[in-house]
Amino acid sequence: MEDNQNMDDIEQNFLTQFSSMVTTDKDDLVKQFQSIGENLNYSTATFFLDMNNWNLQAAVGCYFDFMAFPRHPSMKFLNDLTVGKDEKVTPNTSFKQTWLLQNNGDISWPDGTYLQNETEEKKYVMPSLSPNDTTIITIDQISPVNVGPFITRWCLYASNGTQFGETITSNIDVCHSGTLAITQQMSQLQPMASSDIEIFDSLSATNQVCSIYNEGKAGLLFLFWVFTYRRAG
After folding, report:
1. pTM of the model
2. Paired sense of beta strands 163-174 and 148-157, if any
3. Residue where a domain stops, chosen among 68, 90, 124
4. Domain assignment present for 48
5. Predicted confidence (pLDDT) per residue in 57-97, tens digit
């Protein structure tokens, strides 16, 4: 209650101060607007002034109204990056899902934010993401033993358990001919295969150098034999 009263007093003081200022220069108006707070940048000042037709007193009042309004964190689901997405999965099988998320709000995600399934206790701790930034999260899933649709819903929660942002709905078909797990296993083997090829190429190059060295060594021995034979003759 006291904080709201202090905010009202500060706002009234600024409004009284700015009501006596008469200027039409936009740069001066921006500087005067920025004087009401240390963290006010040029873009913010321009936004509120332009929204109020460059009326300084109205812009200041609008800004304080905005700051007094409680703001909450937000999240937007951008894309499904799951390897083998849209493929079906076999029953009782482990697989992974990867999602691209964005903080589409105007405040950072609070410390301790976590992602959780509506029906499970396992939590995935999320970073304190700044506004407009994105993050990639990979979760572990196990398909049910019965065939049919496997639907799970995931939400972000603040450390106090308050839910925010969009709900992520996953819908995967479970059937005996599913290939999702195999696709993901094969994708993990590809980097290993590339590494094996590099090792093979390295060994081939080493063998080639050794072969050249041995051939050169044999040639030197032959020349030494010829030179020694001629001297003896």
Report:
1. 0.59
2. antiparallel
3. 68
4. yes
5. 888 888 888 777 777 899 999 999 999 999 999 999 999 99
> By residue range, what is the domain housing residue 28?
21-68
80 and 154 assigned to the same domain: yes
Secondary structure letter of residue 161 according to DSSP = S
Residue 134 region, left (φ>0) first, then alpha (ψ -120 to 50), else beta?
beta
Q: Exposed (0-12), middle (13-18) or buried (19+): which is 32, by Cβ within 10 Å?
A: buried
**Element (H or E) spanning 187, and its range?**
helix 180-232
Q: At what angle do helices 56-68 and 26-34 cross, to 10 degrees?
A: 30
My answer on whether 79 and 27 are in the same domain is no
Q: How many domains does the chain have?
A: 2
Look-up of token digits 């997405």: 85
> In the beta sheet, which residues pair with residue 137?
99
Distance CA 24, CA 151 (A): 59
Q: From the DSSP assignment, how many helices (H) and strands (E) are in the chain? A: 5, 7
Rounded to 5 degrees, φ, ψ at 53 are: 55, 35
C-alpha torsion sign, points 54, 57, 60, 66: negative
Kindly report the length of the chain. 233
Q: What is the residue type of 53?
A: N
- Please report, for the domain that includes residue 79, its CATH number: 2.60.40.10
- Within 8 A by CB and 6+ apart from 29, the residues are 23, 49, 54, 56
Backbone angles phi, psi at 163, to 5 degrees: -80, 145
pLDDT value, residue 6: 54
Residues 6+ apart with CB under 8 A from 19: 57
End-to-end CA distance of the chain: 117
